[in-house]
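Slide 14.
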Amino acid sequence: MDVNGLIDESSELFNEKQYDEAIEILHQAWDEIIDKSTQITEQIEIQAWFGRCYFAQAEKAKDTDKSDELFKLAVEHYRQRLKLAKQLTDKQDIVDEQIDVQFWLGRHYLAYAARIKDANKAGELFGQSVKHYEKWLTFTKQLKNKHNRIWQQTAAQSWLVRCYVEQARKTKNTGEINALFGRAIKHNEKRLQLAEQLEDKQDDSIQEQIDALSWFCGCYLEQAIKTKDMNEAAKLFRQATAFAKRNLRLARQLENEQIRIQQQIFARFGLGRCYIERVKRIKNTDKAEALFKKQAGKYLLTADRQLSQLSDEAKKRIEKRIHQSLRDVAYLNEDWHSYFEKKKQEIQESLFQGETSQPQDAVATVLAVLHITPIELGFTPMAHYTSPHVCHILFSIGGNETASPMRLGSSTYMNDPSEGKGLLDLLNQQDLELENKTDGVSHNAFFTCFSSRVNDLNQFRLYGKEDGVEASGCCLVFNKNGDWLIEADVSVPFSSLSKKSGKDSDDLPEDGFWNDEYEKLPLYQVAYIAYKDEYIAERKCGIWLSAPNKAFNLHQNLAKENLGSSIRFTLNTNISRFGIRLKPVGNEEWHQFRLEKLKEALEELIGFFKDKSAVSDDDKEALEYIRYLFKDFAFRDEEEFRLLVIKPIDSEEIEYCEQTQSVYIPYADIRNLADEVILGTNYEKTGNQRKAEVFRYQMKQKCPDVKVSRSTLPINPPNK
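Slide 15: predicted structure.
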């Protein structure tokens, strides 16, 4: 096979994601060129494919050092490509090659910066990306063809816009955010001016202008969401809305029908989001708020109706986001039935492809009740309690050069010995747990926990203790500004279960959920199961139901085994009652609606699982989606919420910690997610000689945007 044939084969392997094989073929192609003063074009192409292959491997590598090594290899091949380009005889060919190399280097640095967890390192990579895009702009001045020159300049400006926006998304500093968005807007203004000069093809010019207007809308909208000054936020929302309306007007001028409809849908979706976010974040007059809600619904409903005119592929890109936004409008209008049904429908379509059996329908109801969306959470702060040692590692202070991501821990090592068993006991399905023990567990649940109890004495006493000293840990606070939780794909935590069940996986997201910002893990609220005894008042639980006697008896044994003689039960062989405690989140009317739906679903599950002869393996499998969302009533004071994922035991995403001798999944760098760290009252009173002022100083150096405070909760110091 000749050199060109080998290059073609390597490109096919690249498209099939067989990067090692592609690299091997590229080496063969390179070796085929004996005289390196010839076939310069082929050599350039080989170096280009080497660069793309190594970068793809760098993105895929789990080990940071390995990823960095592969990234450097990719960059080196692009540099070799630049050297080869200078040997071309045609000056315009040289310019074209230099432009293409700068484009790819800028794109690779941008992609690497966007996915990297170290914020400081990401900043350096963003800087490199900007440098290459600016070089691209410089080279465009040498292009003789006017249309091509303007087109290339427009493209370079668009990538500079994207670069600054991505960088702004990675910081919490308001001043830095505004500066970065300011640069993005400046480059976008130049892009819009250039787009208006594209005269050869009218649709191309309009499309570029539409894209520029979309970025204006996005920049102002994101700034409005992030700013704490409500007057400034209102101004930014107005600007975002104005650009979205211009976008809609311009989209009507497109000649291509499919593109015209698609761009109108995008513009209407943008307008809907602008009005929704404005209602969520700014206190308006009743009249203005009603108008904004009406406008949001109008634009989104029109966009939804237009979806039927799109091809399936184009429809798929935006349909879910429109439906989620319509769901938000229903919440703002306090139309609880509509809001709930939209939540449930999304779950049914994502997990069960819309066709549900009786237990699957009940499971979808439970998930719809316990899944907390951003609009439900609002500005409710969330706390995560941890030890000083772990806190230092998470923020890369106290001698830790690099930050470690927050972990999703295995359910096996949680503080509740009955983790995942409470619901099975309730439904008299203990045999499911026994089957897992007999056959060997193929999947495991991993989660990280949050509490709505911020700066809480009981939580400080129980969690994050150092040297056994109560209240010596740290309380990490999230969502003070209502921007921590993002819209999630509800299927992501359960993708491995869907595949295991033989569901069509074409629509399931790929593993590696942290790579796609839209596919962050959803937040679930934990419900607490109480078995009625003489000491539990009726008011402690929002729901009371009858339970199978066997489940009640098993729970007694479990409770006595775990908690000793401190628990006394009122035994009744004919009737057993259990309650469900669920803390209100957000609107009280919505909370009561949730309780009613949860009661209906649990009654349905209890009734269904009474007849074991009618229970299939798929029915039992459905319980895996919800069994880790219920805990024993003894843990009710935690008021827990979870980010949860279920993975096969042999998943490549699972890592082992030698220090704790446990398995976990790395989740997220929290340095740009946390709003505050509250140091426990006894933070300085352990044997490690910790000083609050040192912690403040180090945080100011590494994470200046994270507030540090000291708890003053009353608790005795440790005994000397």
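Speaker note: The two ends are 80 Å apart (CA to CA).
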